Amino acid sequence: MSSLPRSPAAISRRAAVQALLAGACVALSPRSSKAQAQRSFAQRTGSVFSSSPFSRLTQPRLRQIAIPEFPDMHAIWGSTGRDDRGHIWFGVAAVNDHFSGHLMEYDPRADKIVDRGDVLQALAKVRPLAPDEGQIKIHTKFIQADDGYLYFASTDEQDEAEDGSHPGKWGGHIWRLRPTEGATQPVWEHLAAVREGLTCVGGAGRWVYVLGLWNHVLYRYDTQTGDLRRIEVGAVPGHMCRNVLVDGRGHVYVPRVTFGATGMEASLVEFGPDLFEIESTPLLHYADGQTPASAHGIIGFTFLADESLVFSTGCGHLYKITPQARGASKVSALGWIHPKGISYTPCLFVWDGQASVAAVGQVPNSGWDWIVFDMATGTSQTMPFPQHLADPGSVLLYGTHTKDDQGAFYVVGRYHASGGRRLPVILQVTTA
User: Fold this and answer.
1) How far apart are CA 150 and CA 83, in angstroms?
2) Distances (CA, A) of 105 to 108, 279, 404
3) Cβ distance 397 to 383 under 8 Å?
4) What residue ranges do the domains of the chain occupy?
5) In angstroms, what CA-CA distances link 104 with 3, 26, 67, 172, 306?
6) Which of 39, 207, 283, 362 has its CA 20 to 30 A from that of 69?
7) Which residues are CB-contacts of 372 (< 8 A; sequence separation ≥ 6)?
């Protein structure tokens, strides 16, 4: 475990550019922060617990939210989150090198969505940009910490090797901003430039975690001191998990993935905020029949009202993490979330966080389903998910856990629009 260099003042622009080009990890402008008044478990984990509908199997209603257009806009790769005010945040990715991902903020009460800037525009305020530089993706979840800031990360994919031999040319960046009111544009604050592409952000309270490729590189940022630490958890070449899990205590859970007699094998490793390993639990259904590149690892998660959390793997198996008063958390298998077995189920949600988990998923060679998993019996029921998008066979859906104060869930992704264009989509899902 190593601490990253930091300074009470921002490092020089020239030094930042030189360090980034050399593939170094550079912490920029960390500043101490004061915790807000005690926030609830739901606030610290970005959760909303509300009443359940009369029938959980009622056909969900979908509404597509228009996204402000920008050049090269392409998809939302599961990048969603919320702040304490109930505003919903989305990271919209570009598709071609040298372009930039954008940040969108949606106010459900006002039904208004605003473009809150792009990565390259923000990075140009930190240091001069290289002629061919790009940051096409904001791929991560958005986490509001106790200091009031919203944390996320961006990444580049130019020259990225799918076999895991090297990351994108321009690496990744860790960002934060303080949500603003009205038309005031929030200021992006640059926290670190790293050599890895950054695909996952999780956190609770004081601690923010960022996961990067390759080899499941884990960063931990201390919002009170600005300290940034890095360890390598381990993964087979070419594999990258899609989510990092963090419980209400600030413990983080990352898969360690190896090759075994039956192919890819994984254990869920629990770390404390000091990044010392606490426990490792085998995940028997992490990537059944999948290759390193096609396996997406942990693809869905959501919290329960008892402060436990459930997550789905890329082959559709559901697990539960139950934090303990002392020692390691308990990790238990709940079974296949889809009644047909193996599925790709990247969207998990809860109503009251007690009896049921709602999900959006699909079994191989089939359309998307609305799934309701009963926690008591370990069984589920399904119905077709009414996406109502052009060319439904080409729709990719992601997004998990994010819910607004009115009880709506948010599913995101990409679809084929008219003229052969592939565009991002935001679906507001209501069940009441």
Assistant:
1) 7
2) 10, 37, 13
3) no
4) 2-430
5) 32, 27, 8, 19, 31
6) 362
7) 56, 57, 356, 357, 358, 359, 380, 381, 382
Q: What is the mean pLDDT of residues 31-49?
A: 78
Structure pTM? Answer: 0.91
Other CB atoms within a 10 A radius of the CB of residue 160 amount to 18
| CA dist 146 → 23, 70, 208, 224, 280 (Å) | 31, 32, 10, 9, 28
Strand partners, 232: 217
Q: Which of 317, 341, 334, 432 is nearest to 374 (CA)?
A: 334
Strands (E), 304-388: 309-313, 317-322, 330-336, 344-349, 356-362, 369-374, 379-384
Contact partners, residue 330, CB within 8 Å, separation at least 6: 321, 322, 324
The residue count for the chain = 432
HSE-CB for 402 with a 13 A CA cutoff: 29
> Is pLDDT of 355 > 70?
yes
Kindly tell me if the per-residue pLDDT of 19 is higher than 80.
no
Task: Please report the DSSP string for 244-272 in residue order.
Answer: -EE-TTS-EEEEEEEEETTEEEEEEEEE-
Residue 106 phi/psi, 5° resolution?
Answer: -120, 130
Mean pLDDT lowest among 41-55, 185-199, 284-298, 349-363: 41-55
Burial of 54 (0-12, 13-18, 19+ CB in 10 A): exposed
Whether the predicted pLDDT of 389 surpasses 80: no
Q: What is the CATH number of domain 2-430?
A: 2.130.10.10
Half-sphere exposure of 348 (CA within 13 A, CB side): 30
Q: How far apart, in Å, are the Cα atoms of 403 and each of 49, 213, 321, 333?
A: 9, 28, 21, 25
Q: State the average pLDDT over residues 58-68.
A: 93
Measured CA to CA in angstroms, residue 244 lies from 7, 300, 302, 366 at distances of 27, 10, 12, 28
